Amino acid sequence: MTDRPDLPLLVTGATGVLGREVLRHARATGRPVRALTRRTAPPADADTHWYTGDFTAGTGLDPAFTGADAVIHCASDPRHPKNDLPAFRHLLEAARRAGVRHVVNISIVGVDRIPLAYYRIKRQGEELLAASGLGWTNLRATQFPQLLDGMLRPLGRLPVLPMPSRTPVQPVDPAEVAARLVALALGDPVGHAPDLAGPETRPATDLAAAWLRARGSRRPVLPVHLPGRAGRLLREGALTSPGHADGTRTWDDYLAARH
Questions:
Q1: Cα distances (Å, whole numbers) of residue 235 to 147, 161, 224, 240
Q2: What is the distance between the terminal CA atoms of the chain, rounded to a whole angstrom?
Q3: What are the NAD(P)-binding domain coordinates in residue numbering (predicted)?
């Protein structure tokens, strides 16, 4: 292994749900840690040096990348997914200029199956990474509880809560994904790493019912049949990875802590 313990780990998207957890685990390694955000960076502290850069424009990246050993890429823009591919290209260019040893990318279980725009873009990002000539590792994970919670909140205001019928979901805690990403970053590049999924697979309607109970709501869940190819693939479990149920924190654990 060519890892240099004196060189920094760089975390992109460092203020997001996953990025914050990656920072926490990176600091625990004792390695120098850098964090990159597109907004005004928090002040530097003893554990982390913050940088501001814009991946979409490709500006302000070199100071953060220069001298970094490994980059853990958590930055994404689900609201404007078309920005993710040019952003990823700029990241790879900055990593090449800086001679970064290892780029670790987080992706989503199902990007190679679900015909949704954001998933296609994530898949294209994986292809860019594999063709970059850099040392690389790609980790696909299942959905975070925070994502499901955020989706349920507006729906929970309706008289009934509509959810896809017969659709299995396998939430995984972002802290557990972060720990895996940091461990991968410290090792040699492996290409496509094994998936990381939550400890249990449950119907989406069941997760929604548990969410309502945790909030003290008596609203009913309305199972909705999703038509078309995407609906069929979701029902077939395209968002799950039962053979990699390595997470330990369940949806009910999340709800108990959150609500």
A1: 19, 19, 12, 10
A2: 44
A3: 13-144
CB 231 within 8 A of CB 164: yes
Model pLDDT for residues 130-182, shown as the tens digit of each residue: 999 999 999 999 999 999 999 999 999 999 999 999 999 999 999 999 999 99
Contact status, residue 61 vs residue 12, Cβ threshold 8 Å: no
Contact in structure between 153 and 214 (CB atoms under 8 Å): no
Domain ranges of the chain: 9-142+174-192
pTM, two decimals, is 0.94
Which residues are within 8 A (CB) of 4 and not within 5 positions of it... i.e. 6 or more apart?
69, 101
Max CA separation in the chain (angstroms): 57
CATH number corresponding to 9-142+174-192:
3.40.50.720
The backbone region for 58, taken as left when phi is positive above 0, alpha when psi lies in -120 to 50, beta otherwise, is left
Place of tokens 């990823």: 88
* Distance, CA of 44 to CA of 97 (rounded, Å): 24
Model pLDDT for residues 43-73, shown as the tens digit of each residue: 656 678 999 999 999 999 999 999 999 999 9
Q: What are phi and psi of 108, to 5 degrees?
A: -125, 135
Type of residue at 48: T
The pLDDT tens digits of the residues spanning 214-226 come to 999 999 999 999 9
Nearest to 34, CA basis, from 18, 53, 47: 47
Contact residues for 101 (Cβ-Cβ < 8 A; gap 6+): 2, 3, 4, 69, 70, 135
